[in-house]
């Protein structure tokens, strides 16, 4: 089986989108391009709201990813768990398609116990050896100001966790919203396997404004694919954040 590469968007947010395109529709578009969208809702108490929770669930479902609500103090552990779980889930989807194509079986559970165990071993091996690109998309709207330290810690821990894998991995860091005529999301860090600059980068981010989650996801898809996905041609997706 061709190992290929796992492509993931990890969206960290604490509120409902309120500007621009529908993030659920955009997440569905990402899935069509083979990009999994995983969402973590960051809360400080139990007042996140049903609308926000529902949106997070729907974005992850449309993006064929994983969603999780997390208190900011539990964020580092949650980020690692969601990333790992999403990798395994995506690999299962690939394996199931292979099984259906080769054996005519619909999924792993349709196999005899011995064969099923062999497939599980393959999935576990791929989880450690398959190459993975993770585009981290962080909501830095005004309400996220006091949660950014937890985000910074969680991404540092995620980097250490990924480095323990055998397979290649790369990160790219983006934040939203932006101001004025600037693009919908800033690229702070291009694809890299060196994530040590994350602390300096996040320290310079100023929380602001609204929550255009849909347009930000469009920018992430453009970056993965190099294709024009919605928005205007003047919104240069490859513009870097300048300090």
Describe this entry's structure for a reader.
42% of the residues lie in helices and 19% in strands. The protein has seven helices and six strands, in the order E-H-E-H-E-H-H-E-H-E-E-H-H. It has a six-stranded mixed beta sheet with strand order 3-2-1-4-5-6, sandwiched between helices. Helix 5 links the parallel strand 4 (131-139) and strand 5. The chain is globular and about 55 Å long.
Write the layout of secondary structure elements.
Blueprint lengths: L4 E9 L9 H10 L3 E8 L6 H13 L4 E5 L3 H28 L10 H17 L1 E9 L8 H16 L5 E8 L9 E7 L5 H6 L9 H13 L18
Parallel strand pairs: 1-2, 1-4, 2-3, 4-5
Antiparallel strand pairs: 5-6
Helix pairs in contact: 1-2, 1-7, 3-4, 3-5
Quick tags:
6-stranded mixed sheet; alpha/beta; 42% helix; 7 helices; 243 residues
Binned, the helix content reads: 40-55%
Q: Using the CA coordinates, give the radius of gyration.
A: 18 Å
How far is it from the N-terminal to the C-terminal residue, by CA?
44 Å
Structural class estimated from helices and strands: alpha/beta
Global morphology: globular
Could you give the order of strands across the largest sheet? 3-2-1-4-5-6
Q: Sketch the topology as an H/E string, one letter per element.
A: EHEHEHHEHEEHH
Question: What is the number of E strands?
Answer: 6
Could you give a short description of this structure?
By secondary structure, this protein is of the alpha/beta class. It contains 7 helices and 6 strands, in the order βαβαβααβαββαα. The chain has helices spanning 23-32, 50-62, 75-102, 113-129, 148-163, 198-203, 213-225, and strands spanning 5-13, 36-43, 67-71, 131-139, 169-176, 186-192.
């Amino acid at each position: 089986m061709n190992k290929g590469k796992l492509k993931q968007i990890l969206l960290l947010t604490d509120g409902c989108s309120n500007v621009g395109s529908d993030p659920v529709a955009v997440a569905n578009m990402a899935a069509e391009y083979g990009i999994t969208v995983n969402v973590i809702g960051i809360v400080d108490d139990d007042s996140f709201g049903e609308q926000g929770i529902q949106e997070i669930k729907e974005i992850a479902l449309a993006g064929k990813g994983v969603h999780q609500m997390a208190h900011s103090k539990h964020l580092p552990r949650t980020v690692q768990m969601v990333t790992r779980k999403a990798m395994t889930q995506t690999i299962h989807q690939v394996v199931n398609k292979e099984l259906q194509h080769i054996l005519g079986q619909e999924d792993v559970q349709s196999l005899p116990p011995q064969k099923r165990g062999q497939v599980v071993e393959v999935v576990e091996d791929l989880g450690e050896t398959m190459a993975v690109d993770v585009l981290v998309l962080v909501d830095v709207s005004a309400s996220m100001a006091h949660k950014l330290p937890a985000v910074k810690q969680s991404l540092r821990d995620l980097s250490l966790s990924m480095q323990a894998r055998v397979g290649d991995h790369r990160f790219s860091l983006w934040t939203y919203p932006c101001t004025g005529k600037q693009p919908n999301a800033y690229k702070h860090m291009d694809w890299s396997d060196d994530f040590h600059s994350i602390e300096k980068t996040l320290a310079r981010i100023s929380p602001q404004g609204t929550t255009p989650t849909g347009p930000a996801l469009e920018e992430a898809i453009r970056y993965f694919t190099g294709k024009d996905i919605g928005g205007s041609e003047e919104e240069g997706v490859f513009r870097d954040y300048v300090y």
